[in-house]
Structures are given as C-alpha cells and as structure tokens.
Amino acid sequence: MALSAVVIGISAGLLAMEITLRFLPVFVGVFLQPVTKDFPVARMEPNRPLTYSVGWSMARSNQNHVNNDGFVHDHDYRIDNKRTTTAIIGDSYVEALMLPHAETLQGLLGAAVGAKGDAYSFGISGASMSQYLVWAQYAREHYKAKALIFVIVATDFDESLVKYRARTGFHYFDGDLERCDMGLIRLDHYPNPLRPLLRNSALLQYLVFNLGLLEGEQRQAWLRSVVEGNTKDTVGEGQIDEPITRKRRAVEPPNNRLADSKCSVRTFFRLLPEMTGFGPDRVLFVLDGLKAYTDEARVVAEKGYFSLMRQYFLTEAADRGYGVIDADPSFKKRRQENNDVFEMPQDVHWNADAHALIAEQVKDSTFFRNLFLLP
C-alpha cells in the first residue's frame, strides 16, 4: 500500500510538471524525416511549430515554424511559383532557430524584394558544404531557383568529409583523399520508433534540451538513437560500410585535417556547376568572420585553422569567378568602432545585428540587384 502511494505520488508530480511545462517556452527540437534512396533530400517533419529557449529559465525564447517542405521558414514553398526565387543554403546559421524569421538573412532579403521574388531557405543544424550541394540541386530542380546564396562557416570544410563527420540523413564527400578523387555518399536515416516519446513530452524535452540532461557523449548517443534515429550510420546504396570509415578515421593522423579540408573545398567547387547547372553569375557566397573580440584574440585566430581555410576558400572562389561577401572586415570594423557583438550570448551563431549587416551587403551586391532587377 505504501509503495502504491509513492508511485501514485510520483506519477501525479510528473503529470503536473508535464502539464505546467506545456504552457512554458520549453525548447522544442526539430526532427528529420526519413532519408533514403526514394527520399534522398534531408528535410524536417513539416508543418510544426518550434520553440527555442536556453537553460533552466528558458531564457531568450523564440517561436518559429517548420513549413510545408520541412524547413524553418515563415512561408510555405510553392512548386508552381512564378516569381524569381533565390535559395539561401547553410547549416544552423541559416536555420536560425534563435531568431524570428523577420530578423534572419532570408527574412530580410525576402522583405527587400517584396513582390518581385522570394528567398527560400534550406538549412539544418549539422549540415556542411557536401549537403549544401544536394539542397542546391533540389532548389534548382524542385523550385526552379534562379540563384543560390551559400553561407559558409568554420565547420563546413572538414565536416563535409565522412572521415570527420557522419550524421545520418546528410550527404558527405568520400573517396581517395590522397588524390582528392571524391564523390558524394548519402547516410540513410530512419527515425527511431521511440522518437514520439521525446517529441510529445514537454518534460523530457525540458530535461534534455534546457537542463542538459545526458550531456556530452552520453547525451549524443541517446539523442542519436531517439532524436536523429539511427543507432548506426549507414551509407547510400553501393557505398562502403560505416565501420570501415571509422577504422580508417582512427588510424589517420589528425594533422591531415588542413589538407583534407582543402580537398573538400576543391570537391565542392568541382561538383557545384555539375549539380546545379549554374555559373558563377548565379552563385554568391557569404563567408563568416573570425570570432575574435580583442587584438590578442585576433592574433591567435589569424593563425588558426579557420583563418587558413577562409583564405583558401576565398582564393579558390576568386580563381573560379565566384563572388564572396566576406563578413570578417565588416564585423571587425564595427567591433573596433562601436564594440558591437555579432554572436548570440554564449553562442557562436549570428545575432540579429549580424544577419542585418550581411543582408545589407547582399542587397547592395551586383548579384542581388541584377537578379531582382533592383535599381
């Protein structure tokens, strides 16, 4: 009898917490749809509201929306759209869960062109340049996009290689790195049957996302099986098995990362025109700046991996005739003049000021004015 009373008491307490949390801005995650041979493009479960918040107090809460095609965007995408459409492609910087749509790059550009066109965004946290190619091809073929804007950040280079990152649902570069003979492979994704348990419980999402329950490797393993789906990475039909990739990754020295990352950039630029049919006049890159707030920090950052890869990317893009908006000079200038900050608090992602500054530079570009016939 005493045990029954304890069980009833605990159950009632958990139920009360679940009900209470449903009225509070608990972080509500995003969930990938299956990615397979028949459905090869990574997208999230469509037509879902999203809530972003941070920590136990659910600070900096923000409401967003996954649209009809499975991307975070306030507007549905239309296949029969007759207006000029540009696709904005990236990872969590484009997904931008922490900001209202109107304050994001895609929201600002969409408002700028008004009835003349649309700015469709394709971005999911954890994606990289290899996946961007698939979304670019999808936007071109499915929505007749007339131009592409890619947001390139520090993780895009090495994490485009399955050697360094292998998240199910995404495409990666794989092949002969020594000769830089690389192609795309797909890591298929199958949602775990336990996913609804997390998706439909405010209490579980609060514990996992807001309180950081199961932090570190334990959390990643648990989230991989429940949120992402697969407990084991699988690859596209006819490709090598993931355990072989893991074994190869374990024996190769980490100091190959810079050379590997440069191969990733060259592979991206080789495949881009093949997969989209676009020349440099239809493509614009936005390259993130260094995260350095002091002169001392900048000296260190300029010797680091991202600085080296930024310069390499800029050179490769210029050699091929692509336009690049480099955020670093404008970020650096504004920081020196006004001590402005362009990242979210305790977060590397762009804040609203950064999105606005980048949007202004895109709108002022010849690429954008010619695309939408702006004065």
Describe this structure in words.
- This protein has 375 residues and is an alpha/beta fold.
- The protein has a single domain (2-372), classed as 3-Layer(aba) Sandwich (Rossmann fold), CATH 3.40.50.1110.
- The protein has 14 helices and 9 strands.
- Helix 4 (129-143) packs parallel to helix 9 and helix 9 (257-276) runs parallel beside helix 11 (305-319).
- The protein is globular and about 80 Å long.
Average of per-residue pLDDT values:
85
Beta-strand level of the residues, as a percent range?
5-15%
Q: Oligomerization state of this entry?
A: single chain
Query: What's the helix count?
Result: 14
- Number of strand elements: 9
CATH topology: Rossmann fold
Helical content band: 40-55%
The strand order across the widest sheet is: 4-3-5-8-9
- CATH architecture heading: 3-Layer(aba) Sandwich
Q: What is the CATH homology-level superfamily? A: SGNH hydrolase
Instruction: Give the low-confidence spans.
Output: 231-252
Based on Cα principal axes, name the global outline: globular
Termini separation comes to: 79 Å
Secondary structural class: alpha/beta
At the first level of CATH, the class is Alpha Beta
How many structural domains?
1
Order of helices and strands: HEEEHHEHEEEHHHHHEHHEHHH
Question: Which SSEs are present, and which pair or pack?
Answer:
Layout lengths: L1 H20 L26 E7 L4 E8 L17 E7 L1 H4 L9 H9 L3 E7 L5 H15 L3 E6 L18 E6 L4 E6 L8 H5 L2 H9 L5 H13 L13 H10 L5 H20 L6 E5 L7 H7 L3 H15 L3 E4 H12 L13 H12 L2 H7 L3
Parallel strand pairs: 3-4, 3-5, 5-8, 8-9
Antiparallel strand pairs: 1-2, 6-7
Helix pairs in contact: 3-13, 4-9, 9-11
